[in-house]
Amino acid sequence: MAIKRKMLKGVKDFIYWFYVQYMLVTCAFDMEPWEKVVMHSFTATTLTMSVFTVYLFIPTRLNHAFQFFLHVMCGQREPLLS
Fold first, then answer.
1. Average pLDDT value for residue range 43-58
2. What are the backbone angles phi and psi of residue 78, rounded to the nearest 5°?
3. Disulfide check for 35: which of 31, 49, 58, 71 has CB 3.0–4.6 Å away?
């Protein structure tokens, strides 16, 4: 049980450290509350859109690269995966 608490404390400390670094890098400590909301909303939207784009397009691009290199290395005429 003590190990679990220690691990949770470590995770909590890391999240707090990451948040403080984010606030320092973006200079959010010096902003008005409404400016923080706008900046955090923009950052969250950008991060969400980036993650979604990576999730949607990277597997397709990797499949195309795999097919290309398979064709170059083995001389396959037809793709194995559709």
1. 94
2. -115, 140
3. 31
